[in-house]
Amino acid sequence: MTSSDDDGYVHDPTAFNGPDDRGAETETAEADSDGEWTDAPRHPATAEREFDWRGWILVGAIVLAFVVAPLSILLWPPHLNYFVALLILPLLPAALLALTAVWATTRP
């Protein structure tokens, strides 16, 4: 059975001209990048990864999300609105933890 007998898709590499066949959009993006990171990449061990003030802020957000928020839900007075206790109290620390984690792990 040959590829001409197939009614389905058959990949033909000769149908593509190669890297020059790409659109102008990718060529512009490639021309804008300097490519230095591929010429001499840094080893991960040489990167500055210290536990500084950003790490302590992240630890504070973890404590807030995993200790303070559940305790506040547990101690929420029953005569007050449960919408706040069951939706807002877990949501705000979780969102704060997510934003803080992204901020703390992104180096300038």
TrEMBL record:
Keywords: Membrane, Transmembrane, Transmembrane helix. The chain crosses the membrane at residues 56-76, 82-104. Residues 1-44 are annotated as: Disordered. This is Uncharacterized protein. InterPro entries: DUF7977. Residues 27-37 have a biased composition (Acidic residues). Pfam families: DUF7977. It comes from the Archaea. The lineage of its organism: Archaea, Methanobacteriati, Methanobacteriota, Stenosarchaea group, Halobacteria.
